[in-house]
Amino acid sequence: MLIYRSLIGLLTLLLVSILVFAATQTLPGNAASAVLLNTATPQRLHALEVQLGLNKPAVEQYWTWLTGILHGNFGKSLANGTSVGTLVGGRILNSLVLVVLAGAIGTLIGVGLGVLAAARRDSVFDHVLSVTALAVTALPEFVVAVVLIIFFAAVVWHLFPAVSVFVPGTAPWSNPKELVLPVATLVIVVVPYVFRMMRASMIDALESDYVQMARLKGMPKWRVLLVHALPNAIAPTIQVIGLSFLYLAGGVVVVEYMFNYPGLGQALVSAVSDRDIPVIQFIVLVLAAFYIVVNILTDVISLAASPRRRLPRS
Amino acid sequence: MAHRPEALAVLGRAVRTPRGVTGLVIAGCVILAAAIGPLVAPYSSTEFVTRPFARASSIAWLGGDVLGRDVLSRTLDGGWELLLMAAVATALGVAAGAALGVIAAYAGGMWDSVIMRVVDVFLAFPQLVFALLLVSILGPKIWLIVLAVAISHAPQVARVTRAAALDISERDFVKAMQILGIPGRRIIRRDVLPNLTSVLMVEIGLRLTYSMLVIAGLSFLGFGLQPPAASWGLMINENRVGLIANPWGVLMPAILIALFTIGVNTFTDAVARASLGVGRRSTEPDPLVDLAVEGATT
């Protein structure tokens, strides 16, 4: 299963790389003139075309690019000539810290609230949470971020910095204060998804026969909830947790830009402004690879977590 | 067999629920403000009216923006293009996705595998990142952004539609018609598509929310309408340096974007509930509906 999924994942990644390459390097109005814009003279255009290898056939260009990546050579930034590897390397870790922290905290809160809401189904607590979740699900990251900044950084209180000031080379966890608002933004965006799914599958589990049976036996309520219902409700929720990690891969772009957090997303935005094609290609590929890996992990874990699906199909 | 009236009946049921009417009113107010806003704005959106980040006054009711333009006028003027882009992107994306999904479900075999494999490839891009990829090459053009968002919707819609269409094709009345020798194209048009309307209505609502998220997000990142034009996403970015002096420049566009997405999402939720036949007791949240709604977002 894992091997099969990994092979499909690799194939998808290969197709993604072809798509990324085709979109950036072979679309009409070639990359060289896109980079130079109005500073283009025939000589400069030609020099850049040679540097990017645009004068060769598209298949050969793709092959050079792909083998380069496989050998750890990701090309050079057009904006400042540094290698894409050094430019992006540290940022991958920074973004990963953001995504993993937000994903983990968001999952805990979402699962916890979901279980509580399901246990007190139709109470005021449940209704308030459900309606809030419905409203928050739809909010864009930058709206959440703006509200947090107004409350905690700028207008009401001044607890946390509105903009990250990172000394290059320091690990992101060495200044936790700067992480609070970006992580909080992502957590708020992710919690409603996990909450809604957890609540729904928990209610499903609570209504099943074996839980009724456990109740009738006179088992304590918390034990019914945690030992009998929860394990059976967790499998569908794992799918949603996987989804929210995928969602975070896109969400970091806006959040990092908003808080000036030195991660992949911020680098992507400035690379797009500068039309720095090698950087764009690489970051998009990294994000897609993250997506594919999370997808595989989600499938494998939810399979392992659902007793029913492990049974052979009749 | 469901026909058009059933789609209307579902909408009707949704509107009569508390969630449905709340969502519709909220989204409707934002649409109205964005549509008639440019006509009633006191100033032109590019006119210099006051000092940069001036406080609210009788001249500028919501104060000045980063260059001293009227925040109220720019807010009123900055929504219609955003909403229009989101609407067009949603329509294109849902139409293309639904077509792909139905084709995959009915052609089956090789077509199905090819379409679904391509869908998987496109799904590996976060929507915003996909749009950024296209914008990076061709520049922040309005048609390109609409197209990019539509393309990034299509795979997700295709997945949902395919699953729903496969479900319908298993039913007896479709099988009976196939045995009778009625051409596949006619079965799809006359019997399958009408049965997909509820699924598609929910998809349209969800995709509209996501369109707004991505298009306003791009605008916030500076890849939408270019200055000096007014656009809600752009306004938030321009005015956030003056958040303390005059928060309205950031708050107003943020509130309007939030209200629109909340309204659309709430109404969509009501439609999803109504289409599963639980609209009559909608105050009671139904686990199955939540599962269906969440399932539709995957």
Task: Tag the structure with descriptive keywords.
heterodimer; A: 314 residues; mainly alpha; B: 298 residues
Description:
The complex is a heterodimer of chains A (314) and B (298). Chain A has 314 residues and is mainly α. Helix content of chain A is 76%, strand content 0%. Chain A has 13 helices and no strands. In chain A, helix 5 packs antiparallel against helix 10 (221-259) and helix 8 packs antiparallel against helix 10. The radius of gyration of chain A is 24 Å and the shape is globular. Chain B is mainly alpha-helical and 298 residues long. Helix content of chain B is 73%, strand content 0%. In chain B, helix 2 (18-40) runs antiparallel to helix 11 (248-275). The two termini of chain B are 27 Å apart.
Shape field of chain B: elongated
Low-confidence stretches of chain B: 278-298
Described by the principal axes of the CA atoms, the overall outline of chain A is: globular
Number of beta strands of chain A: 0
Q: Average pLDDT value of chain A? A: 79
| Separation, N- and C-terminal Cα atoms of chain A | 18 Å
Query: Which oligomeric form is depicted?
Result: heterodimer
Tally of helical segments of chain A: 13
Please count the helical segments of chain B. Answer: 12
Strand content of chain B: under 5%
Q: Provide the helix percentage of chain B.
A: over 70%
The SS-based structural class of chain A is mainly alpha
The tally of strands of chain B reads 0
Give me a quick take on this structure.
The complex is a heterodimer of chains A (314) and B (298). Helix content of chain A is 76%, strand content 0%. Chain A contains 13 helices and no strands.
